[in-house]
Hints:
The protein is an alpha/beta fold. Helix content is 35%, strand content 15%. It is built from 13 helices and ten strands. The protein has helices at residues 3-16, 21-25, 37-44, 68-79, 83-92, 151-162, 186-195, 233-244, 260-266, 283-290, 302-305, 308-332, 351-356; strands at 31-35, 95-102, 108-114, 127-130, 136-142, 164-169, 202-209, 222-225, 249-251, 295-301. Strands 1-2-3-4-6-5-7-10-8-9 form a ten-stranded mixed β-sheet, with helices on both faces.
Amino acid sequence: xxxxxxxxSLLAIGLLLGLxxxxxxxxxxxxxxxxxxxxxxxxxASREFVLGEAERDDRPYVDPSAVLNxxxxxxSAMAWGNVHAAARQAAKLDYEVVEFTxxxxxxxxxVLREDLSAVETIRGWGSFIVxxxxxxxxxxxxxxxxxxxxxxxxxxxxxAACGAKGFLLAGAHRExxxxxxxxxxxxxxxxxxxxxxSAQVTAWQIHGxxxxxxAFPRGAQVVTSTGDGGVAPVVAALDSAxxxxxxxxxxxxxxPADADENMQLNGGVPGVTFSSLAAAKNEQGRxxxxxxxxxxxxxxxxxxxxxxxxxxxxxxxxxxxxxxxAAQAAAAGPSKVTLVSGELESPPEDPAxxxxxxxxxxxxxxxxxxxxxxxxxxxxxxx
Length: 383
């Protein structure tokens, strides 16, 4: 059959189904790809999809304010599995939804990314992945793919290893758009849609630091926090797991230095020592906490991130703690799910989105963090 004949036949089918020209063209916008998930994430974290710092990349970040509401609907539709509606909506925003099959595991994911064929240059809004058969209701977020080298790779390891619900990757260097400081970003809107109205889904955000720039104890490799000065059980569990993997970890907290919990976590080093990495003003963390949910902020030293073996150790430890939290939540009983009809309004010009969003107000499941493993020995302050 010739290409012209094939196209005519498809058009005839569309007319028989009562589709208009535009609706027929958008009837199936879902694209198909396959490969290695790690390679996909590496590509999404490259200059092809991420804007670099100004001195190396003159492409400007585009203010997304006018389309934030629409992106929230697209993300909500994806979270609920209505990927065809999401794809139609995304196409109007010069984004695309891709069904990606990992050639090694045969597992399928849905990817929301800029449509390079539809834009002259990327706008720096980011890329996002949903696992439709996730094992844990967790988001893995990477807000600084260029400034914090190797965090996309570590985040990808965690995302795949624990079977997390979603993976969020910023689309611009922090000099152009520092998304943890922004609510008017596509990154924040996807976070909003995917955590649910009560923040049932916990976000684990991965960052990087350089210990030589801070007055930290010698050898500090990881600093974790919840952003509110407290110590959540899951953060204590993560601290323990990192240490067991041979990584030197500390936890930001506002407890007295000699408090039992701080002694266990930091060996007597005051938790406020790490306030520069506390994430107290992180907008995604603020939102999650304000809704009654959890947020985990992880800072990894540059020397750790630069070493392949250390990256794997860190990723494995984080994934193991996420799995442990999910296992304990499952053992505690059925997840609590709250659906709020109309939580997100649909763009009035899109009837398909209006139909979707009645059930796009939350993401099923609720994460409850695991209790901290008890260490047999406390650290010493001189470590």
